[in-house]
Amino acid sequence: MFQTIRRILFKSLLWFMAGSALLVLVLRWVPPPGSALMVERKVQSWMNGKPIDLQRTWRPWKELPDDLKIAVIAGEDQKFSEHWGFDVAAIRAAIEHNQEGGSMRGASTLSQQVAKNLFLWSGRSWLRKGIEVWFTGLLELLWPKQRILEVYLNTAEWGVGVFGAQAAAEHHFGTGASYLSAHQASLLAAVLPNPREWSASRPTAYINRRASWIRRQMRQLGGSHYLNQLSPSKPQWMADALGK
């Protein structure tokens, strides 16, 4: 009986690995119709008796403003072009900080956030974290950095029921994503750690300070020139192997 159960579990694991790899490969070219986080938020709203309308409109890479791309990198993951999905130094620093007590600090890269938002559920269980590591590895292996950032900007949560850059620009500033200014982009990036509680259109003094810091970081990263490091066609491992 134990051998049968073990064989079933092994086959199930193989099917999961093959199916998830195929799904990630397809989504390299096909825009995701939604995300697991969107489904989770919708179900939560039904359970709370306060249904929400999900707002999201996909925008391809060329229609997303460079200022927003750089602002998100500056605020969330400044080593985005260098790492293979995990910022080891940031993870170690977060572990040490959390062990000392006080507010919890995360160290998720943009790649990890895409993996979680697109495929998984919220929470801090070891099971979810383990599956997140698997999907993050697949994204880095099969997608170029440019695609990871493109999907991130189209799936990130920017308010209650507000997902993606286009919906965020309309909701907070009454404009399209491609017309966002550098100031507006920095405000959107500033609220990403807590988008359901913080507002880019009604920023507190703290949000304004954080947005100002992000704009300084944008300039230090090199502005739009930074994006030249993100290969539009090759995953990171392939770009490194070919010398970019």
What secondary-structure arrangement, pairings included, does this model have?
Blueprint: H1 2-26, H2 36-47, H3 66-76, H4 88-99, H5 110-119, H6 126-142, H7 145-155, H8 165-173, H9 182-190, H10 205-221, H11 236-241
Structural features, described:
By secondary structure, the chain is mostly helical. It has one domain (58-241): Biosynthetic peptidoglycan transglycosylase-like (Penicillin binding protein transpeptidase fold, Orthogonal Bundle), CATH 1.10.3810.10. 57% of the residues lie in helices and 0% in strands. The chain contains 11 helices and no strands. It has helices spanning 2-26, 36-47, 66-76, 88-99, 110-119, 126-142, 145-155, 165-173, 182-190, 205-221, 236-241. The chain is globular. The mean pLDDT is 91.
Beta fraction of the residues?
A: under 5%
Query: Which architecture name does CATH use?
Result: Orthogonal Bundle
CATH-assigned fold name: Penicillin binding protein transpeptidase fold
Contiguous uncertain segments of 5+ residues: none
CATH class: Mainly Alpha
Oligomer: single chain
Radius of gyration: 19 Å
Q: Quick one: biggest sheet?
A: none
Order of SSEs, N→C?
Answer: HHHHHHHHHHH
**Structural shape:** globular
Task: Give the N-terminus to C-terminus distance in angstroms.
Answer: 52 Å
Number of strands: 0
Q: What percentage of residues falls in helices of 4 or more residues?
A: 55-70%
Mean pLDDT reading? 91
Tally of contiguous helical segments = 11
* The CATH superfamily title: Biosynthetic peptidoglycan transglycosylase-like
Q: Kindly give the count of domains.
A: 1
Structural class by SSE content: mainly alpha
